[in-house]
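Design request, tokens follow.
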């Protein structure tokens, strides 16, 4: 490995890691804006999970305090909810 210098050269000599592992990705062609953006059209946020409150049966996020009644689960009252 004559072209390697510094830390990677030492790594290659001492523990004989393949050169590709240290060099990382080396793309042969540039990926166009369009192609990259097309690929990323499938990246999206997951929908918010909803569950029914055991106390008041309102929809709420699972494992969270119910914003409608202030209960966590069936028994534990955590918040005092103001009513208009
Ligand atoms: Zn509730």
């Amino acid at each position: 490995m004559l072209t390697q210098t510094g830390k990677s050269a030492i790594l290659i000599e001492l523990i004989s890691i393949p050169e590709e592992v240290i060099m990382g990705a080396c793309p042969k062609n540039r990926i166009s804006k369009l192609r990259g953006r097309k690929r990323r059209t499938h990246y999206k946020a997951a929908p918010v999970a909803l569950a029914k409150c055991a106390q008041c049966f309102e929809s709420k996020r699972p494992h969270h305090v119910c914003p409608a009644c202030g209960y966590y689960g069936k028994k534990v009252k955590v918040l005092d909810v103001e009513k208009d």
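Comment from the thread starter after seeing the answer: thanks! The CA atoms of residues 8 and 14 lie 10 Å apart.
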